[in-house]
User: Fold this.
Amino acid sequence: MGSHDDAPRAPDTPAPAVDSNCSLPRAANAAAHPSHAAARTGLSRRAFMRATAGSGAGLLVGAAPLLAWIGACRDASSRMMGPPAEPLGPSATGDLVPIGRASRTPLPTSLRTAPGTVDLGPLGRWSTWLYDGVYPGPELRLREGDAFRLTLTNALAEGTSIHWHGVPVPNAMDGVAGLTQPAVSPGGTFDYGWAARPPGTYLYHSHVGLQGDRGLVGALVIEETTPHVAYDRDVVVLVDDWLAGPPTMPTGGGMGGGMGGGMMGGGMGTMRTMGGMPRYGAHLVNGRPASVPALLEVARGERVRLRLINAGGATTFRAALAGHRLTVTHTDGRAVRPVTVDAVVLGPGERYDVVVAMTNVGAWNLAFDGLEDGLTPGRLVVRYRESTAATPPATALPAGLTGGRVLTLSDLVDAEGWPTPGTPARSFALDLAGGMMGGGTSWTMGGQAYPNADPLLVPRGAWARVAMVNRTMVRHPMHLHGHFFRVGTAIKDTVLVPPGGMMGSGGRITFDFLADNPGPWLFHCHNVYHMEAGMARVVRVG
Ligand SMILES: [Cu+2]
Assistant:
């Protein structure tokens, strides 16, 4: 454990109380962020939002004073809302553990990767690789404009790295082993440093082989100075697909054994492996299985911003909260015009921020249904302090998992005023192929399997266009490093390309980006098994 690490807390130790007015003692925060703490007032964040947004429940808030205080308030809330990193311990018997565990103070300046075990209650002890001995890794919460510095120390027996997924860092800081840096050798260290901008919900993970499908994932939040929506506090909700053992490339389906004996004899299992999916054992939300979920306590009337992060290695999730609708405010960190839906679909690497008005007293499941498997959805329990309702069973699924309005790409409209794309200086047409359609074990982009693939060259400062057609039967969450891109009316860094097959115009996604960040950047499928089997290219800007 790093020297900054808190002493582990017993899982049944209640988190310090914080009310919805953020009226915590501020001493600790003042030490960490004196400029913000100095701006605090006696006005509650919610009252302030009401005052500035008018008497209605308008979501849009103009430029406003006191935002620094809001930041301080949110900072206090975030300290209460770190991921549950401690072993399940006694809670494995069924008690719910609030996710209001204090996160590390101050921000970690080091992370250590090492083998470790995580108590998953009924799922047993999980032997995996961890950041600072916890899963998910420590929540890293920064402020817009902060200078971020962190030293990675590698205590694994093989090389590793950290990628700051979504943050357009300088190329040498991007953490792609073999492309932007050498893998950090066992026993070695690497210093990462970058400016925290733009604000948003991100994640960090290893970018070596299949390591991202171990426990080497964590939430990364850059808080904005001027939120465009009103909320009382925000909470990270990180969903992950869980493998009992070490990740290995799916075999027996890929292609080799695929078509013949595979489809007929292997049933769903072979279909899954042909799709580049391992056999997951469960879905975890904030590190907990559905049988012993994390608990989010809320108060009637508050607005809670949920930062939904899909940290899964290969699973696409549909997320919904029973008894509530979700107002989507951000995708991949970028602000959008608020749109209210019943469910959102997140591919691996995608993030959606949603604001929920807590107006339906009770105890409810916030559930994540893996779309490629028949596993019990992962869940987190949202319970009102005013409620005496029993904890819902894991099978009490939100209606939004099977019905209601699901967010679509065209619902997302940039609210930050990103530039309209100019005429592309370079255009790339890339078929996504492989799996059972390709006759081999590789997954390809434009007919080539990385690393035996040509780089996509874009002059610095030019606009480029990427047109993808999915020729496979499975989803591909395509992620571009170092840049955001415009897809339709949205600004994103990861986009799900739907299956093509016989679905006509389905399976086509085109995006444009301004190549303003020099260097070689990975552009790849965020299903780590597809990436490892070749579904990646280098975009070389410069
Ligand atoms: Cu893929």
